[in-house]
Amino acid sequence: DQQVKQNSPSLSVQEGRISILNCDYTNSMFDYFLWYKKYPAEGPTFLISISSIKDKNEDGRFTVFLNKSAKHLSLHIVPSQPGDSAVYFCAASALRGGADGLTFGKGTHLIIQP
Amino acid sequence: GAGVSQTPSNKVTEKGKYVELRCDPISGHTALYWYRQSLGQGPEFLIYFQGTGAADDSGLPNDRFFAVRPEGSVSTLKIQRTERGDSAVYLCASSLLGGSGELFFGEGSRLTVL
What we know:
The complex is a heterodimer of chains A (114) and B (114).
Chain A: E1 4-5, E2 10-14, E3 19-25, E4 32-38, E5 45-51, E6 56-59, E7 62-67, E8 72-77, E9 86-93, E10 103-104, E11 108-113
Parallel strand pairs in A: 2-11
Antiparallel strand pairs in A: 1-3, 3-8, 4-5, 4-9, 6-7, 7-8, 9-10, 9-11
Chain B: E1 5-7, E2 10-13, E3 19-24, E4 31-37, E5 44-50, E6 53-56, E7 65-68, E8 75-79, E9 88-95, E10 104-105, E11 109-113
C-alpha cells in the first residue's frame, strides 16, 4: 500500500519552461515533506522541504507547494535547465508522531529537452 | 570524510551466500539509516540507528537481514542466505540528530544475487 504516490513515471519539458512534478500522500500523520533528486549511480540528494504548517517554500528556481486538504504537493522548477534532468523523489515523514525515517514515492524521471 | 561512504559499490554473489555491506556516515551524525531501492521503485526504509542502538528495525524484511553499529559510527548491514529477490541497491543515509527529516545519502551498494 503506497503511502506516497508519484503517478507520473516520467516527464519531458523544454529547456527554459516550467517543470511541475506532482506527489500525493495518504497518511494524514505525515507533517514534513521533502524532494530529493537522483542522478544515475549516485545517491539521492536533498533538494527542498516543507513543513505542514506552511503551504509554500521557495529556494531559487525551486518551489514546493503543499495542499493539506487534498494531501497533495508539487515541485515547480522554473526555468528548467538541462542539469535538472534526473529522477525526483517525493518523501514524507511523521515527525510529530515520533517516527523517524522517510517514506518515498517511486520517483518521476524528468527529462529537459534542449 | 565529507560525505556518506558505502562499500563495496558493487557486489555480485551466489544464492545462499552471506553478504556484508558497510556504511561510514558523515562525521558527527548520530542518526544512521539503511534503505533498499529495487528497480523502478523509490528507496524503502529498512532500519534506523540512533547512536549504537537500533531505534526502529520495522523495515527489515525478515530475519535474514541484520544490521549493527557497535561504536555509533560505522554500520554494517548483514544478509544471510541471500536470495535472488535481495538484488537491489542498498542505500545508507545519515543525519545530524535524527527526526529532522533531511537525510544525506551515500552512493549505495549494488547487490546482485545470481
